[in-house]
Amino acid sequence: MKYPQVYIGKIEPYDGSSPSAIGKRQVEGGIMLTSLGLEGDEQAEKRFHGGPDRALCHYPREHYAYWTQQFPEQAELFSPPAYGENISTLGMTEQNVYMGDIYRWGEATIQVTQPRSPCYKLNFHFAIEDMSVLMQQVGYCGWLYRVISPGKVSESHPLELLARPSDISVAEAIGIAWHMPFDEEQYRRLLAVSGLSASWSKTMLTRMTEGKIEDFNRRLLGKS
Predict the structure, then answer these.
(1) What is the pLDDT of residues 89-106, one digit of tens each?
(2) CB 81 within 8 A of CB 7
(3) Nearest to 213 by CA among 185, 189, 177, 171
């Protein structure tokens, strides 16, 4: 049984970058989870964040020890929900959570749709110019959920695995998308995953059509 800490945030201005809702605060007690996420949680750039396929962001709490070790001078930054997550747990990582996994959480049912795609806003948030690149390289990205059925949730409701329809872990999906050379067979494996997000489906189909991997710089560094 994995009991989550729960966080929501409002859109706020950012010096040197566009507004963001990455800054979250902990919520205790029951909160409504709708098809678009936790009540009161906001997303600034809906083209890249939020929407039905990306309603919740989950980041493993155990990764914070790694980031503290990497950046000891900024150690005070590295505790939940520094990565803008809605859900923080111990015991669930990219290695043991799988693409398409379906979980019961309180009254709600949620499904893993994609790894979280690190973006340049993390660089501003931490004042570390290549944080997004490092996250992608090491694979400590977390993942996103869609809400299959809404309902009331809380930190006292554990995440219970109901179904595991795929054999691709979130870690393997990260490897296929960002660490491996072009491999159409692996993209077809990802596309076959039940519940894969529309944006990841589009990315894999575009790669297969164009015969190449897209440039990551715009997403990771904010420039093409």
Answers:
(1) 999 999 999 999 999 999
(2) yes
(3) 177
